[in-house]
Write a structure and sequence with these properties.
This protein is α/β, with parallel strands linked by helices. The chain is built from five helices and five strands; from the N terminus they run αβαβαβαβαβ.
C-alpha cells in the first residue's frame, strides 16, 4: 500500500470511528501530503481577515465559510466550491481549529462530494494553557508551508 492509500484509509477509519458525516478526517501533515500528490484540493474556509493577517497556505483555494466581521454564513459557499472543484476530486477543508471546516466538509458531502475531508487541528490548532494558538497543533505548528498575507 502506498502512502496516499494509507492516508486515505486511516482518515476514513478516523471518520467512521467518530461518526463523522463525510469521507475522512486528516491531520495537517496528511493533508499536505495529499495536496502535494496532486490527488486532492485544499479549501481554506477561514475569513479574508484571517488569510490577510494570520497567514495562508500557498496551494489552497480560498472560500469563506463565514463572512467577516459579522460571522454570517457565506450564502455563496457551495456555489463557489462547485465552480472551483469538480465533485469527483477529493476536497480537504481547513479553518483555524477544525470547527468551521467540519461544517464545510459536511455540507460538501451532502452536496455530492464523495471524498470530503476535515483537516483536524486546522491552521492554528487549539489554544494552549496561556490561551495562545499555533503552539499545540495545527498546520503552522507542524512546520508546513504558509505565507503571511
Amino acid at each position: 500500500m502506498d502512502d496516499i492509500s494509507k492516508i486515505l484509509n486511516e482518515s476514513k477509519a478516523r471518520a467512521a470511528e467518530k461518526g463523522l458525516p463525510y469521507f475522512g478526517a486528516v491531520l495537517p501533515r496528511e493533508a499536505y501530503d495529499l495536496v502535494q500528490s496532486g490527488k486532492a484540493r485544499l479549501i481554506d474556509v477561514r475569513t479574508r481577515a484571517e488569510w490577510d493577517y494570520v497567514g495562508r497556505i500557498p496551494e489552497s483555494t480560498l472560500i469563506e465559510w463565514q463572512t467577516y466581521p459579522d460571522g454570517r454564513p457565506n450564502p455563496g459557499f457551495l456555489e463557489a466550491l462547485q465552480a472551483e472543484v469538480p465533485k469527483d476530486v477529493p476536497v480537504l477543508f481547513l479553518c483555524r481549529s477544525g470547527v468551521r471546516s467540519h461544517a464545510a466538509a459536511k455540507v460538501a458531502a451532502e452536496a455530492g462530494y464523495g471524498q470530503a475531508f476535515n483537516v483536524l487541528q486546522g491552521f492554528e490548532g487549539d489554544k494552549d494553557g496561556q490561551g495562545h494558538r499555533s503552539s499545540v497543533g495545527g498546520w503552522r505548528f507542524a512546520g508546513l508551508p504558509w505565507v503571511q498575507g
